[in-house]
Write a structure and sequence with these properties.
This protein has one domain: Four Helix Bundle (Hemerythrin (Met), subunit A). The chain is elongated. The chain has helices at about 5-40, 55-80, 80-110, 125-155, 165-190. Helix 1 runs antiparallel to helix 4 (about 125-155), helix 3 packs antiparallel against helix 4 (about 125-155) and helix 4 packs antiparallel against helix 5. By secondary structure, it is mainly alpha-helical. The protein is built from five helices and no strands. The termini are far apart.
Length: about 190
């Protein structure tokens, strides 16, 4: 018995969503390992607390807003409102870039406060912070690349109310990265 086009489309969508779930679960495992190592390392004699850079707080607000704009973009595509979807996708891209800017600004704040990740004046606490944030930024780079692909496909008119898989997958991953950062930020803020 041959599959209909709709059955094939639905099976393809399920497969892609399942692959994305596996990827996100593996990312969760990476960060679970990093945060576990952080907790274990807190018992070290050279562990020193630090003030969370203000730029990290700002970046957290920025990335949460970007989650809202990405959701609005997806909703606009589902309603075939191309102009609103374009505005929300481009706003999400700008917010994603601002998030990266504020992350590096946070590293600069640490540097200005003589908090270094390596060298004679380094602290293990700051080294962990750098590793966690940079690892998240690497994953966010993947999110930004997928967002650029979505924007490209959107302007090529590949999405509409009946074809939303690409933007759904992108939104799912973007929301995951946002909430992953929120978890990391709260973890680092309260367990420093």
């Amino acid at each position: 018995m041959a599959m209909t086009f709709e059955e094939h489309k639905e099976r393809n969508a399920r497969s892609k969503k399942m692959l994305l779930w596996f990827a996100m679960i593996s990312m969760i495992m990476v960060f679970a390992g990093l945060t576990s190592a952080y907790v274990v390392s807190k018992s070290r004699a050279d562990w020193k607390s630090f003030e969370m850079p203000v730029s990290f707080i700002i970046s957290t607000v920025v990335i949460l807003i970007s989650s809202v704009t990405f959701h609005l973009a997806k909703t606009s595509v589902q309603k075939d409102n191309r102009s609103a979807a374009s505005a929300y996708l481009l706003t999400t891209l700008v917010l994603g870039i601002l998030f990266v800017y504020f992350q590096f600004s946070g590293f600069h704040e640490l540097y200005l406060n003589n908090l270094y990740p390596s060298g004679d004046a380094s602290r293990i606490t700051v080294a962990f912070l750098y590793v966690v944030v940079l690892t998240h930024l690497l994953h966010l780079a993947g999110g930004l690349i997928s967002l650029l692909v979505i924007i490209y496909n959107h302007f090529k008119q590949k999405y509409n109310a009946s074809q939303t898989l690409g933007i759904e997958l992108g939104a799912m991953f973007w929301h995951f990265l946002d909430f992953l950062w929120l978890y990391l930020f709260l973890f680092l803020y309260f367990f420093k």
